[in-house]
C-alpha cells in the first residue's frame, strides 16, 4: 500500500538521483577497497536508508512493503554491496528485536539502528550446515546468568564492522532436533569477543565479508 503517492515519489526520485550520481560512480572504489566509502555511508545515514522499514516511533521511515519495494528497485540499479550495509539494519537486524525483543531492548537498540549509529549483523550460516537452521552446530550453554557461546559463523554480512549481532545457537548440544534454538543478542566487544576474518569474495558483485569464531 502506498500511503502518500506524492511523498513516496519524491523519496524514490531522491534515491534514484543518489544512485546515479553517488553510488554508481563509486562502484569501482567500493570493489577496490572492499568497503563503502565513509562519505557515502554518512549520506546514507542522512537520507534515512538505515531506517527505511523501521517504524516511525523508533525514528525510522516506516515504509510499507510496497513503498520499500519501489525504493529497492532503485537501489538495485547499483552494486548490491551498497544495499548490504544498510539492508541488515532494516531487515533481519531490527525485525527480530521488533518482533521478539523486550521493550527495553527495542528502546535501547532500534532507534540507533534506524539512524545507522550502530550496524547490525545476523549470524545463522555455518561452515558445515550452511543456512539450514535445523542443522546448526553453534551452541549456547547456560552458565548461571550467562550463556557460553561456542561455534563458527560464516559469510556474515557486516561481520567485521557490526556493533550488534543476532546469533542463532543450539541450547542442547545433545539434542539434534529443530526445537532447541536460542536467538542471542550480542554487543561487539572488540577485540576480545570474536575473531573476524574478512573474506574477499564477490557473488553477483555483493561482498560476503567475514567468518566469526
TrEMBL record:
Record flagged with keyword Flavoprotein: yes
Pfam short name (any one): Acyl-CoA_dh_M
Cofactor(s) demanded: FAD
Domain Acyl-CoA oxidase/dehydrogenase middle: 121-182
Top-level taxon of the source organism: Bacteria
A single MF term (Gene Ontology): flavin adenine dinucleotide binding
Acyl-CoA dehydrogenase/oxidase N-terminal domain boundaries: 9-117
Keywords annotated in UniProt: FAD, Flavoprotein, Oxidoreductase
Keyword Flavoprotein: yes
Family as reported in the entry's similarity comment: Belongs to the acyl-CoA dehydrogenase family.
Name the UniProt record assigns to this protein: Acyl-CoA dehydrogenase/oxidase N-terminal domain-containing protein
Origin species: Vreelandella sulfidaeris
Amino acid at each position: 500500500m502506498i500511503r502518500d503517492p506524492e511523498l513516496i515519489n519524491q523519496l524514490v526520485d531522491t534515491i534514484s538521483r543518489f544512485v546515479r550520481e553517488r553510488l554508481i560512480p563509486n562502484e569501482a572504489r567500493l570493489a577496490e577497497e572492499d568497503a563503502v566509502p565513509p562519505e557515502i555511508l554518512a549520506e546514507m545515514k542522512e537520507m534515512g536508508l538505515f531506517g527505511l522499514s523501521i517504524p516511525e516511533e523508533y525514528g525510522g521511515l516506516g515504509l510499507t512493503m510496497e513503498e520499500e519495494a519501489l525504493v529497492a528497485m532503485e537501489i538495485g540499479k547499483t552494486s548490491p554491496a551498497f544495499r548490504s550495509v544498510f539492508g541488515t539494519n532494516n531487515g533481519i537486524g531490527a525485525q527480530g528485536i521488533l518482533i521478539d525483543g523486550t521493550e527495553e531492548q527495542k528502546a535501547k537498540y532500534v532507534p540507533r539502528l534506524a539512524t545507522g549509529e550502530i550496524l547490525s549483523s545476523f549470524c545463522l550460516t555455518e561452515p558445515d550446515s550452511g543456512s539450514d537452521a535445523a542443522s546448526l552446530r553453534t551452541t549456547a550453554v547456560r552458565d548461571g546468568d550467562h550463556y557460553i557461546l561456542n561455534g563458527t559463523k560464516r559469510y556474515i554480512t557486516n561481520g567485521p564492522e557490526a556493533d550488534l549481532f543476532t546469533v542463532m545457537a543450539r541450547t542442547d548440544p545433545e539434542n539434534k532436533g529443530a526445537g532447541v534454538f536460542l536467538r542471542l543478542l550480542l554487543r561487539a566487544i572488540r577485540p576480545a569477543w570474536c575473531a573476524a576474518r574478512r573474506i574477499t569474495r564477490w557473488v553477483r558483485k555483493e561482498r560476503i565479508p567475514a567468518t566469526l569464531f
